[in-house]
Amino acid sequence: MTAQIQYADVEVGTELPSGSFPVTRATLVRYAGASGDFNPIHWNEKFAKEVGLPDVIAHGMFTMAEAIRVVTDWVGDPGAVVEYGVRFTKPVVVPNDERGAVIEVSAKVAVKLDDNRVRVDLTAMSAGQKVLGMSRAVVQLG
User: How high is the pLDDT of residue 15?
Assistant: First the structure.
């Protein structure tokens, strides 16, 4: 695959289509199985509260992966993401109900770089709180 977005077609400030990603306890159990991360803070409410968390929280790497989907969906090629980093600022708290939590992600082109690359800055929110800080991706465009 190659990037479907052309470098000449974007400007600083170009907004990517936003994304809304639901997270339930079942989602966390599936992610734990796939990742091998069975830390009880991600599935055991009693344990999470005993260690000072408000409730079960989503895995940080899961949150990070959901957020970058906005970029990979926009560019059309996951391989076009050549760098990606975040700071974990707040956990995504996932209540034990049918709704769970939602991660809301927006992104925009922040800088046009050399070699047909752009830096995309992402904002990830859940329950009105920013859950990722300094969330940035470098993307190779066509």
Answer: 98
Strand partners for 140:
117
Tokens of 102: 């939602």
Q: Quote the CA–CA distance of 33 and 53 in Å, as a whole number.
A: 22
pLDDT band at 31 (very low <50, low <70, confident <90, very high): very high
Q: What is the pLDDT of residues 71-119, one digit of tens each?
A: 999 999 999 999 999 999 999 999 999 899 999 999 999 999 999 999 9
